[in-house]
Amino acid sequence: MAEKLTHKRVLKIAIPIVLSNATVPILGAVDTGVVGQLGLAAPIGAVGIGAVIITGIYWIFGFLRMGTTGLTAQAIGADDKGETAALLTRSLLIGTVTGFAVILLQVPLFMLAFKLAPASVEVENLAQSYLQIRIYSAPAAIALFGISGWLIAQERTKAILILQVWMNGLNIVLDMLFVLKLGWGVDGVAFATFLAEWTGLALGLWLARFGFIGGLWRHWVQVFNRARLLRMAVVNGDIMLRSVLLQAAFMSFLFLGAKFGDVTLAANQVLLQLMFITGYALDGFAFAAQALAGQALGAKDRTVFRRSAYLSSFWGVISVLVMSGAFWLIGGWLIEVMTTAPDVRLEAHRYLPWMILAPITGVACWMLDGIFIGATRTADMRNMMLISVVIYVISVWLLMEPYQNHGLWACLNLFFIARGVTLGWKYPALEASVEKP
């Protein structure tokens, strides 16, 4: 490896990601907060369900970011400049084409989503309006996964910070303008995100401009190399199946919570936004693991691979303890800030301890995800996710009816634990497969 692997290097990669990712759930909190000022549960639930549906659709294609990160990091570790450039071009082509396909398929996608969502008619109607606006930024949103993955593998995480601050900062400003000033309600939240995603794509291309220098990016024989395309397809296919299973679990959590009424649905949405703040912060260290583990595997260095897993996980655990402690202290205050509806506030306070526990039960799966993505050991990720979802379904069947929403939150925590345990079981074989220098 060109640079020594130290705590400083891990933090240099992770901290910009932590800062940039922290703006994502802050945006979600603002989305929830601006409609929360209306003092009604239905708009909060509609933005929650709409955002979960569209994010779930997009994150099915999150394989593009994860696969691009792992493959690019390994190409960098192997000092293969041609493949490094070709991966940027491939990811952009895949993202753009996939985005337009999502637009064309929006009717059946939304019909399927709402069949799974037993919310009230008012919430469904508002969420449908939200989705019909958001869907038209799909090509930009999905192509950005590829750009982000490529930049992460390059350890250019300051560029990711710039990109996210621009997109989410603009989104927040437009939220305030469209919802609080112009009174557009749920539609205003959707328009704000639509504009932020398209401008974000333009900025992302500029931030990755060094990848277009020298002409290797348009070496079409390399870009469309059959063996390379097949490997990328296999990796991305495994990750996509894993992402479908993961999003199914998260979406089912929100939809199942809707069975307990609009107030509980809104409370769960508020708490999920708080939980995602910790999750996105953890992603910073998981992304560091992706880049460093991938580069170590590409360089065939088992010692560095093991050290990358240890150092990134060490800081991941530290971040979880800090964030969970912070939410224990100020979580109640944040709930009061995010919604003015008294019944939603009361309900969210009831389930706050589950949200505080979730990052602790989830830290192992987040960090192991990063390591396995960097190593492109995607078949293991797919299979262990399937086992974890089965455990989650069984726990829902056993716990939700007798314990209601408390049981549902317990199931989510059990799902995190199952993911960590199953991937941990596979880790020794992964490390042993990395060739010694």
Write the SSE topology:
Layout (H helix, E strand, L loop, with lengths): L6 H30 L4 H20 L2 H15 L3 H24 L1 H10 L5 H14 L3 H16 L3 H25 L3 H23 L12 H4 L2 H33 L3 H37 L3 H37 L3 H33 L3 H56 L4
Give your account of this protein's structure.
- Helices cover 86% and strands 0% of the residues.
- The protein is mostly helical.
- The protein has one domain (7-433).
- It is globular.
- The termini are close together.
Annotation keywords:
globular; 437 residues; mainly alpha
The DSSP helix count reads: 15
Chain oligomer state: single chain
Structural class: mainly alpha
- What is the CA-based Rg, rounded? 21 Å
Low-confidence stretches: none
Q: Looking at the structure, what is the overall shape?
A: globular
Q: What is the average per-residue confidence, as pLDDT, rounded to a whole number?
A: 87
Q: Give the biggest beta sheet.
A: none
What is the number of beta strands?
0
Distance between the termini: 11 Å
Overall number of structural domains: 1
Task: Estimate the strand proportion.
Answer: under 5%
Provide the succession of SSEs.
HHHHHHHHHHHHHHH
Helix content: over 70%
Describe the structure in brief.
This protein has 15 helices and no strands. The chain has 437 residues and is mostly helical.
